[in-house]
Amino acid sequence: MMFGDYYCFDLPAALKSQMDDDFHNPSNFESQYALLYTVYSTPNIILPFFSGYFIDKYGTCTMLIIFAFFDLLGQFIFTIGLGAHNWNIMYLGRLIFGFGGASLSLGTTALCVDWFIGKELAFSLGFSLAMCRLGSVFNNFISARVCNTYDIETSLWIGTLLAVISFVCAVLMYPIEKYIDTILMNGNGNGVSGDDVTVPFLKDVNSGDNVNSGDNGDGDGDGDSGDEHIYTMQKHQLSDGTDVDDKTDEPFISQSQSHCSDEYQQQEQQEQDQDQDREQEQLIISEHRVVKEGSFMVIFEFPKIFWITTVLSIVIYGCIVPFNNVASTLLLERDYFMEQPNALCALMNSSIGACQTDQNQPNMYCDNGSYYQPPLADDASVDCENDENDCYKVYCDTQSDAEVEATTMMSIPYMMAVLFVSV
What is the pLDDT of residues 249-281, one digit of tens each? Predict the structure, then answer.
């Protein structure tokens, strides 16, 4: 799900230069482009608070479907708006996409918390983040190439297709979650209550596990009432005509004493430690459920480490995300499509309407390196998409190659995250 979400989120950043060309280089392009991320981010300052509440109230998978649908609808409208060259439709699409984007990430995190615990939780969160960043890497690698090979609308329709796949994944998650909930509620897959299951307990008794009458797993043998159903099953198994009146069943004790060796005691201690670990896990789950039933006021009970982490996240994302939004243009102009260093650089015939051809090459003052802009005729107005006479072919091909290299360079930090975040 998050692969498609992050792919669509980073699409404008990967295609910034191409969008500028597609809109014929308007003077206010930078401000209009920046608004694409502003309308996405503004509602997400408050929306995650309500999204978290709705996830707790209506269920993780239900809300994931809704969030993924917002993602799909928003990306679809954005693609239509760019094809129509209408900024207002594009803003509407990014706004709707914002209703689902950040909330989808929140729902995925909640899903990991519900399904994993302990060390598995950290790994699952890391793997989920790796898939997010893989979507960004995939976007930076192919979007510019697809745009240069076909057109910019095709690049956006690929994002819409991935949004459809994300929505389908969210829908498929719903029956899986319900099936697991049914198993947990029934105790097993056949709808049998956990108190009626006898074979696993009897197998543990026969194999020498620490399940005995009057012992609740903490080794004190005090015979808590919570273990009465275990004793009932043992009594039923051992009653072969002998009258068993209490929980100090002699045959059972004799069986346990036959295993009283150092090795057995060591194994028994290990099993007790495992039981304690399971009890701690259940306690964590119970506390998690209590928190989920709380209200908004619970945020005032969060520890200091939570707020420190929150401030750290704000600082990191406040530095990384804005830079990534303009990085393609910055890298393009600074490193991969630089202006000629010598002002005397020009075509041998630079009159108005002149084109670079085999007979009209750059003069001796031009740097012919692949990272420098080829010279143009005086007052040239470049339109790479409508260059019917190939007058600007050299210029446009050089620019396209530079755009691909710039977006590929943007993928390096995300690639590092993909490789190491799970570790």
Answer: 444 444 444 445 566 677 777 777 777 766 666
Asked if 152 and 85 count as a contact pair (C-beta separation under 8 A), the reply is: no
User: Rounded to two decimals, what is the model's pTM?
Assistant: 0.67
List the Cα angle 226/227/228 in 5-degree steps: 95
pLDDT digits (tens, 9 = 90+) for 307-364: 898 899 888 888 887 887 778 788 888 888 888 888 888 888 877 777 888 888 888 8
Residues 6+ apart with CB under 8 A from 92: 77, 81
DSSP single-letter state for residue 210: S
Q: How far apart (Å, rounded) are the C-alpha atoms in residues 364 and 366?
A: 6
Identity of the amino acid at 174: Y
Give the number of other CB atoms < 10 A from CB of residue 94. Answer: 25
Alpha helical stretches, state H, 298-420: 304-331, 393-420
Q: Are 233 and 201 in contact (CB under 8 A)?
A: yes
Distance, in Å, from the CA atom of 283 to the CA atom of 256, rounded to the nearest integer, reads 30
Under 8 Å between Cβ of 400 and 145:
no
**With 0-12 CB in 10 A as exposed, 13-18 as middle and 19+ as buried, what is 211?**
buried
Q: Which residue bears the tokens 């979507």?
A: 135
Give φ, ψ of 258 to 5 degrees. -70, -15
